[in-house]
Amino acid sequence: MASKLNPYLSFAGNAREAMEYYHGVFGGDLALNTYGESGAPAEAGNADNIMHAMLEGGNGFTLMASDVPPGMEHHPGTNISISLSGDDGDLLRGCWEKLSDGGTVAVPLEKQMWGDEFGACTDRFGISWMVNIGEPG
């Protein structure tokens, strides 16, 4: 997989509805994964909410989204991050180091429960970034 950069949208409980709408707009393949499917505790009350959605169009468009988990704030209008993903670990780790330098790390870049390395930070200019490094395939 080549590395790619794409928008990542956050929603307050209606990510499924939004992504199905965007699927109708852009076409392509839509994958939806819920918090419940990933083993989120039932008492969190978000088992049916979207932990990760990805819309990949045959035209090169990629859009990702999720519902914010309980306890995280949602601010419409500022609910977007930029996602860097792929399997070129050296490239993506280098981007992470530069983006997080002088910024704020929300999630350290490390192996996650889904098997990839993932990190989230806000750079020194206030832009939110997510980096996901998958296994070469």
UniProtKB/TrEMBL annotation:
Pfam hit, one: Glyoxalase
Entry superkingdom: Bacteria
State which residue ranges cross the membrane. none
What's the protein called, per UniProt? VOC family protein
Q: Where is the Glyoxalase/fosfomycin resistance/dioxygenase domain?
A: 5-131
Query: Which SUPFAM superfamilies did the record assign?
Result: Glyoxalase/Bleomycin resistance protein/Dihydroxybiphenyl dioxygenase
